[in-house]
Amino acid sequence: MLSNSLVELDRRHLVHPVSSFRGHEARGVRVLTGGQGATVSDAEGRRLIDGFAGLWCVNAGYGHESVVAAAAEQMRQLPYATGYFDLGAEAPILLAAALAERSPGDLDHVYFTLGGSDAVDSTIRFVRYYWHARGQPDRDQFISVAQGYHGSSSLGAGLTALPAFHDGFGLPYPWQHKISSHYTYRNPVRGDQAVIDASVAELRAKIEEIGAERVAAFYVEPIQGSGGVLVPPMGWVKAMREVCAEYGVLFVADEVITGFGRTGPIFACEEEGIVPDLMTTAKGLTSGYVPMGAVFLSDHVYDTIADGAGAKAIGHGFTYSAHPVSAAVALEVLALYEGGLFENGRRMGARLMAGLEGLRDHPLVGDVRGRGMLAAVELVVDKAEKTPLPASVQPATRLFDRAWEEGLILRAFAQGVLGYAPPLCCTEDEIDAIVARTRRVLDRTLEDEDVRAAL
Ligand code: PMP
């Protein structure tokens, strides 16, 4: 079908996620038609390096025939089996066991969802159920971190701390509280240990303000993704985990982005040597080939819920929980990761970080941050004052479009942050091209009249 007729059909009928409906109608869709390795092609025949792995999910890269074969085989054999009525299928059972073996500590019980938002939503329900089972139903207050993202479900969007997900939706709920982000680049508190100490003090103060006996759980992304790839000082996550342990507050790690090799190890919590009470994953779990998410429950959370419910059914589930095709895909993706992609990702992550660090000499680069294959470059017009780009730039369209013209897909956050999450299969040449194309985007932006006027 001709690309322009697709654009018209899209405009008329397809509602796009997290978009200005009218803005999208005016701009029109760009239709992607194929993918191989770290590269995608569009309907115009253009080839681009996907520096964002779709939506930080295609960790294994595109075009793996073995993944296609695993899905086809599962569909042929048994496309669907419910987990209700004590039924099940082989692939989800094997996947749960494989994940339990690889997860931190005693996070040995896996509840499959369709993606990250319903994984977060499921944790909220499990946390509530847990405290009921423990005879403390008043533990119903939740804390998360400013600039955090925990999905777009009705409950989870209130743990998310980005205004667009709240405005007009009546969120957050009164039981959803926030502490400040570590955001080291713009934190008035300077120095890694000082930032950790300030967050510890703020979390303690927040718990005490609410009343420790009321606080159910605290949510953390090991690296904040959608808030602009905000990397806490090493030790920050551990310090937060310790505060929660001290007050008996459940600690939930949201590893939807950071899981499956994105930052180096299979789960980012490993780097901090911590074991959360609950953990969420999605994205890299199936590398985006089919939808799936997973909630990990530690032994004590699982057993408390199990013993509390006794013979009564725990009323939480989806038709597509533990979908066999998604599980078969995830098992094959895991084999690819462990067959060399995790290792390649670690090497390429170091190269990406070194390459982006090399952009610090550019007049528009205020900050470079990241870990492994998850990184960001924050643009400013005054490095000393850390002055953001003028509002007229509208990075999400101008910088995104410019990168596209250079043959690179990246995430251009509204506040002038370029985000990177390339597939772990990238070659050295592709990593170098990501950096070189970014420099061209920066050089061209430096020529813009509104940017020059603001310098
Ligand atoms: N948690 C985090 C940390 C995420 O980054 C995301 C998605 N970007 C979600 C939850 C929600 O996942 P999904 O979009 O699959 O519902």
Automatic annotation (TrEMBL):
One of its GO terms (cellular component) is cytosol. Keywords: Aminotransferase, Pyridoxal phosphate, Transferase. SUPFAM superfamilies: PLP-dependent transferases (SSF53383). Its cofactor is pyridoxal 5'-phosphate. It comes from the Bacteria. GO terms for molecular function: pyridoxal phosphate binding; transaminase activity. Coiled coil: none annotated. CDD domains: OAT_like. It holds the Pfam family Aminotran_3. Belongs to the class-III pyridoxal-phosphate-dependent aminotransferase family. NCBIfam families: PRK05965.1. This is Aspartate aminotransferase family protein.
